[in-house]
Amino acid sequence: MARPDRSSGFGLIELMVTITLLSILMALAVPSMGAWIRNNKIRTVADSLQNGLRQAQTEALRRSRQVVFSLTNSTAPQTSLAAADNGRNWSINVIKLLTDDTDVFVASGVLGSVGSDVQITGPAAVCFNSMGRLVANSGTGVSGSTSCDAASIPPTYNVTLPGADRPLRVLVALGGQVRICDPNRSLSSGQPDGCP
Question: Which of 120, 132, 150, 155 has the lowest tally of Cβ within 10 angstroms?
Answer without folding.
Answer: 150
